[in-house]
Design a protein that fits this description.
There is one protein chain. The chain starts with a helix and ends with a strand. 39% of the residues lie in helices and 14% in strands. By secondary structure, it is of the alpha+beta class.
């Protein structure tokens, strides 16, 4: 080996040996001081004394003997017989709903077909809100949708297209709005 390599190895070994010897002398932990904080937690309260007591209630009287059953007067029996007649009258006043006429139509995917009436399209959302507010105050089911840059105002949906056609005529006379009837979708 060359002299320069030998000197470098000798110097490195001296540095390592001196570090091993001096490291524990300087790193004894004498400079470390643990912080002691005062505890601000109050002392636990004293536990209350356990009080035992005996109930002061009296025993109920013996009820093994039951009171004799009284006969019901005939007037009460007559009143009970009259009540079913009132129920029959109430049932006659109920409207008869036929399920054959009110069945919703289903499309090819077995989804009920519903219709909605588009009344207006606005570029400004505040105009759509104002019209929606007027229609809601008039008692209509109204919703709006944003489509690209337009805010569209719809009335409905309804399962019967005929009802929406009548509503379209009523809105034309009341508000001067001529709408278009579309198939209702959730998108």
């Amino acid at each position: 080996m060359e002299d320069s390599v030998k000197r470098r190895l000798l110097g490195l070994s001296v540095i390592v040996i001196s570090a091993v010897v001096l490291f524990p002398l300087f790193m004894t932990g004498d400079g470390y001081r643990e912080r002691h904080l005062e505890s601000r937690i109050p002392q636990a309260p004293a536990m209350p004394d356990v009080v035992s007591f005996e109930p002061q209630t009296k025993l109920l009287p013996d009820t093994s003997e039951y009171a004799p059953v009284q006969k019901v007067p005939e007037e009460v029996i007559v009143m009970v017989e009259k009540k079913p007649e009132k129920k029959a009258v109430i049932q006659e006043k109920r409207p008869v709903v036929s399920t054959s006429k009110d069945k919703p139509q289903l499309d090819e995917q077995n989804v009920p077909v519903a219709w909605t009436l588009q009344l207006a399209s606005f570029k400004d959302e505040s105009n759509a809100r104002a019209l929606r507010k007027q229609l809601v105050e008039a008692g209509h089911k109204v919703y709006t949708r944003k489509n690209a840059n337009l805010f569209k105002v719809y009335v409905g949906p309804d399962m019967k297209r005929q009802r929406l056609e009548k509503l379209k005529e009523a809105l034309q006379s009341d508000f001067g709005l001529d709408g278009i009837i579309f198939r209702f979708t959730t998108q």
